[in-house]
């Protein structure tokens, strides 16, 4: 079973708030997996990276999964001691 949800005009849910909650949880999990790592791993930094990547890929991809993947690669590459694209640091 698959569930698809589409809210093109953003009237049914607050995407930004949901994204920030998900990032807070994800960053907490990452910190638990790699204690002592550094760099700016704040929610704000992840959101900024996503916005930059989404704008860069706007005319190239329509798959939001690709936007998320590229944004996470950018965010993790900025960190110190985090996994980098193509393998572990």
List keywords for this structure.
89 residues, 0% strand, disordered C terminus
Description of the molecule:
There is one protein chain. The chain has a domain at about 15-30 and about 40-80. The protein has three helices and no strands. The chain has helices at about 15-35, 45-55, 65-80. The protein has about 90 residues and is mainly alpha-helical. The radius of gyration is 14 Å and the shape is globular.
Q: What's the mean pLDDT score?
A: 80
Oligomeric state of this protein? single chain
What structural class is derived from the secondary structure elements? Answer: mainly alpha
> Alpha-carbon distance between the termini?
37 Å
Enumerate the spans where pLDDT stays under 50 for 5 or more consecutive residues: 84-89
Number of helices: 3
**Beta-strand fraction estimate:** under 5%
The helix/strand order is: HHH
- Helical fraction: 55-70%
